[in-house]
Structure prediction request, 950 residues.
Amino acid sequence: MSGIALPRAAALRRIRFVIWTFTGSASALLGLALVASFLILAAFGGWLVPYPDDATGAIHLAQRLQPPSAAHWFGTDEMGDDILSRVVLGTRTSLWVGLVITLVASLIGVPLGIVAGLLGGWPRAVIMRVTDVFLAVPALVLALAIVAALGPGVMHAVIALSVVWWPGYVRLIEAKALTLRSEPYVEVTRTMGAGPVWILWRHILPNCLSPLIVKASMDMGLAILAVASLGFIGLGAKPPAPEWGAMVSVARSYMPDWWWYSFFPGLFIFLTVLGFSLFGDGLRDLLDPRSARG
Amino acid sequence: MSVALLHIRDFRLAFHGYDGVAQVLNGITLTVEAGEAVGIVGETGCGKSVLARSILRLNPMPPARVVSGTIRFDGADVFAMEARALRALRGAGVGMVFQDPATYLNPVFTIASQLADVLKAHGLRGRTAIRARSLELLDAVRLPNPAELLARYPHQLSGGQRQRVLIAQALAANPRLLLADEPTTALDVTVQGQILALIRDLVARLGLTLVLISHDLGVIGATCRRIVVMYAGAIVEDAPAEALFAAPRHPYTRGLLASVPDLDHPDRLPVGIPGSIPSLRDPPTGCRFHPRCALAMPVCAVTAPPLRGEIHRTACHGVAA
Amino acid sequence: MLRTVATRLGVLVLMLFGLVCITFVVSNVAPSDPAALAAGPDATRDMVETVRREYGLDRPLPQQFVRYVTDLAQLKLGRAIQTGNDVSDDLARYFPATAELVLLSTGFAVLVGVPLGMASAVRRNAWFDHATRILAVSGVALPAFCAALLLQLVFSVVLGWLPTSGQLSVATAPPPAVTGMILFDALWARDLATFREALGYAVLPAFVLSLPSIAAIVRVNRAEMIEVLGADYVTAARAHGVSPWRVIGWLALKNAMLPTLAMIGLRLGWTLGSSFLVETVFDWPGIGLYAVSSALASDFKPVMGVTLCMGATVMLCNLLIDLAYAWLDPRTSAA
Prediction:
């Protein structure tokens, strides 16, 4: 085998592996499709929906609570607003709350995890004990308490959830860094005089990336679900903002006769969280060959 | 002629993965008569462990698939057996000893419980009977204080002790063939000798047929009277031990013998075989050894040589039958 | 063993202290005025100032912290404006209902999740496996409040099989309180009629609450089972002729139960945390519902009380699970 052909063959093998993993698993493909549609709706929803103004609380009392029809595919709500438009425009809220929460959580959690895993000793003890305490308090309840202190609102819900979300990342990265630190190949580089920064850059970070991406993908869905949950109990977004949880909350009192009102926002939450979970699963098979099918 | 105890005929096994098909066993033909002690030697990845597992149909299928050929134990086709017959074959026909005693014992059960499982699987009933037989087995593999040992968990035993327990498990149902897959590889050198001595002794005392698999010619030579050399999924040479050591015929066997340090002549450095074992997904055409063979001829790259000979069989174009 | 317990207890005390620090920080770091929070939404300026002096909120923070900790040590959690009771009394009253719900749903999750996960691992990549995995992911993805509304619609409104909400009908007198958990108390009093009625009320909320846990248990059990089934010792058992049912049902299960147990511990926090959603939909009189109604009324003390209570419960349960783990796994207990 020549020296040039080798990387090319390796790349080909890699691509074949990616395709094999994703096409071989119906659930990964479904996840990919759901996430892609969610992102498309979030980006272009404003141009796609029939009544974009309905998302901001227009009032058409003549069309209150109409069942799904050709004009209103998902029906209308108690203000006469088109539920399809509101639900689709709600993707944007969900996308940004999901992004902000996972991003803030990983920005806090990853550095702490690396410090704990790499340094060991008392910094690790302190960081991990604090993390343990945070992990022991049910996240949603602590978030509820923080929102109660800050006052209701989607912004406050996002802050509260970011504050309670990071410990998972510390755990993940610390465990990974700890095992990597004692891997024989890292020890070898250490005997050859590599400093901690080099080890971090060359060995720890690249190896943490896969589990991090997988966790972030799954957390996108879960964070969206958590914000919707706070919205549902009335501590998150307030109507008329088009947030799915808040919509279900209002729609609840119109059950069961006006079922479509709560059904469609609920369905969207479900499909979004499902999509990110399946997608994350697929990514795990792809990025973490050890746990891949075999 | 009576039926051979183990008869493998042109057995081919392939593994299917995302990047193609690996021909792991490529036409194995081997007969083991009752009472023989046969050693199978070869480098890591030559397919000897897969062969051992195939005898008990242990390879997961898929990804493994039988392409052609048969394996018969005492005349019965292993791959055509029903579940009940297969369970009888496993244990009562063939007792298998594995490589790493640390992982082949279940960490959350006591030794007593793991021995009892095997005994119960082969029809032994009653607490006292099972306990008596367990003690007898541990005694047979020369473990001191068997009664105390029964209550222990695997992690409380030494490597040698664990391997003895595994041998006891393999003997539990009075098998006719003892199939040992690298039984000493994971052990300390000092323990290796003891375990080999135990196996030799058990084979003689219980009249067992032995198939011993190892990458170590020394281990094989000390235990077996007949040696089978495997390379890249095929048998390249099969001969009585003395003949093989005195006059190896296949270039690979010669290379294998030359790479063992010679303690009688410490000035002679061991010679390795150039190159490395081929990929089984994309094996060389013809004789799979030809890219590494110093004596390769044009025909070697075209046709695979058949295994020829009666008592001393060789698969090489360069060796006259 | 005794030393392990002592060490763990020490850690527990440290963790509880950490929890108290968190709630203190949350009460004080928030941009809102803690005195105004404590006084409630309808308080006048004078009342807020009275509260500030009464609770010592005009003192420096370290002094406030010391006072906060000493109050908590005597279980003084403050007064709930909404109910007019001490928060600790309210918690004692509402906690059993939540505990009952969580216990029942954990039981559900194990009974359903373990067999599903095992079957899924054995029939790997068959249609059953795919269906189970999709169901498992759906269990996580389906918002608890949506599942609750859906099941209420089907089983209470359309079919009329189960009551919509509450813990017991108004007409039924609750059994004499032993634990405060109605199901348990009814059994204790051998009052089967009440037990059956209470079970009818509890089935839907407990099931909804168990959905994400079922999913998690299926997942970890399947993965663990696949790993165990591929483990050398299972190959060895098969090679010695041990029957497949024995291999799967017992040998592998015992190995797979350890991570399941760990998963139950991990899920406990999440289950307790999401209990407030389920309790809200089903009007289940537990501490979750208490926290939500207090939070909506800007009644701050009860929310902090529930946070403390749930945190302490999770810590205590994790300690128990750790000990059970050490007891089940011969490798850790011998060390």
